[in-house]
Design goal:
Layout: H1 2-14, E1 31-36, H2 42-51, E2 54-57, E3 62-67, H3 72-78, E4 81-86, H4 89-94, H5 116-128, E5 134-141, E6 147-153, E7 164-169, H6 177-191, H7 197-205, E8 207-211, H8 216-224, E9 235-236, E10 239-242, H9 278-292, E11 296-304, E12 308-311, H10 324-342, E13 347-350, H11 351-354, H12 362-368, E14 374-380, H13 395-412
Parallel strand pairs: 7-8, 7-11, 11-14, 12-13
Antiparallel strand pairs: 1-3, 1-4, 2-3, 5-6, 6-8, 9-10, 12-14
The structure holds zinc ion.
Length: 413
């Protein structure tokens, strides 16, 4: 990301008396490419990572990348094969639509993307309408001191009386559809509780903890400066690169190699030590506290993109949880429920063998250390055409189909 640094430095040099303000990265003309790496290609992979503006999808033999027009030729010369998945990333960004104007929670919230502050206001306003069975909860604090704000929802057993369902969104900053989707879950649970017996049964069965944006600093940075930012905003001593990947930082099998990066400039930088991202510490504390009290029935970590439902494990491709068959059954039925809404096809299976290896990931931690009965990662729409910058007109179809999948899981769990 050298060009961000350059523009920030220029801004501060020419307006020394003014507070320097980072310029927003302009992706006009940048292309998204799906590249195939040559066999046994760690060196080529490193060169690709250096050349591109962003690696979108941390795969092994295939990578989705965003590349500046001037670097396309050098990139295609490096790799074994490539195909264009988006001709103009800047133009795709325009299709995300204007930010929504804030109004009291209604279904129209799900027709546009929103600024960070409005997301927090949405949760507060939603909770204010249902004070007898919900509360705003704080899960932890970010590097820059923002709270990880969530909502707890309970039913007729009273607050904190049922097994926990924990849902995290937007751990990766650029995955904007995931906060919209997890907010839709909270919206459905609260607004339908009184009128829909099937929803009431779910709310009465569990205690929900939904945190739509667990990486607030990164999310804000993706809105102000770089739309394709992934990590948190933590600095690394002796290095100019910023950010840890919070979903490679969980203190379970963090030390295993091959599923995260030790390079602070990488999109999947794991950190200096297990659990050394403040955001991660908050999430770990939440999981540990609920494990030790009423237990965790279901953990969902909501990401984009790729259309996957992934079960443990990420760190070892041959290992399965003892209730793997039930995991696959829940995932299969959820995928069918999603397909029934809109025809959207999801792939499901164990994380490492289905997608790629990950270490220090949330679902490995919640399965083993958190003792959750079920742990899943959702990768929402699409399969790369728009990637993280899903157009505004796909928000409602996405949140609705995903909700059908989650309802199916809640019934089965
Ligand atoms: Zn993600």
């Amino acid at each position: 990301m050298k060009y961000i640094l350059t523009s920030a430095l220029l801004a501060s040099a020419s307006f020394a008396s003014v507070v320097p303000r980072a310029q927003k990265v302009d992706y006009t003309g940048f292309k998204a490419l799906r590249v195939t790496l040559p066999q046994g290609s760690d060196n080529v992979k490193a060169q690709v990572e250096n050349l591109v503006a962003h690696v979108l999808n941390p795969g092994q033999s295939e990578l989705d990348v965003v590349v500046a027009p001037k670097d396309v030729e050098a990139l295609t010369a490096l790799v074994a094969g490539s195909k264009v998945i988006n001709e103009d990333v800047g133009a795709a960004l325009a299709e995300e639509g204007e930010m929504g104007v804030y109004a009291v929670p209604s279904e129209s919230w799900f027709t546009a993307y929103h600024p960070y502050a409005d997301h927090i206001q949405f949760l507060r306003d939603l909770q204010a309408g249902y004070t007898s069975n919900s509360a705003i909860v704080t899960v932890g604090t970010s590097v820059q001191g923002r709270t990880l704000t969530g909502i707890q929802i309970w039913g007729n057993g009273g607050r904190g009386s049922r097994p926990a369902v924990i849902i995290h969104g937007n751990v990766h900053a650029r995955e904007w559809i995931t906060s919209m989707t997890t907010e839709y879950f909270a919206w459905q649970l609260l607004t339908k509780y009184a009128s829909d017996a099937s929803i009431k049964a779910l709310v009465d069965k569990f205690d929900f903890y939904i945190t739509p944006i667990v990486n607030p600093d990164g999310f804000l940075y993706s809105q102000t400066t770089d739309r394709l930012w992934r990590k948190n905003r933590q600095t690394v001593s002796g290095n100019t690169c910023v950010g840890r990947d919070i979903n490679r930082n969980w203190p379970f099998k963090w030390e295993v190699t091959g599923g995260a990066s030790t390079n602070p400039c990488s999109e999947t930088y794991k950190g200096v030590a297990a659990g050394d991202a403040p955001e991660n510490r908050g999430l770990v504390a939440q999981v540990n506290q609920l494990r030790g009290s009423r237990g965790i029935s279901l953990y969902l970590d909501v990401h984009s993109y790729g259309q996957y439902i992934l079960s443990p494990y990420g760190y070892q491709c041959n290992l399965r949880p003892e209730n793997d068959a039930q995991h696959q059954s829940l995932a299969s039925r959820a995928a069918a429920a999603i397909r029934a809404v809109s025809g959207t096809q999801y792939t499901f299976g164990p994380s490492c063998s289905t997608l790629y290896a990950t270490t220090g990931s949330s679902t490995d931690y919640t399965d083993v250390t958190g003792n959750a009965t079920y742990s899943f990662t959702y990768e929402l729409r699409d399969k790369g055409t728009y990637g993280f910058t899903l157009p505004a007109n796909q928000i409602q179809p996405t949140v609705r189909e995903t909700w059908a999948g989650v309802v199916s899981m809640l019934r089965d769990a």
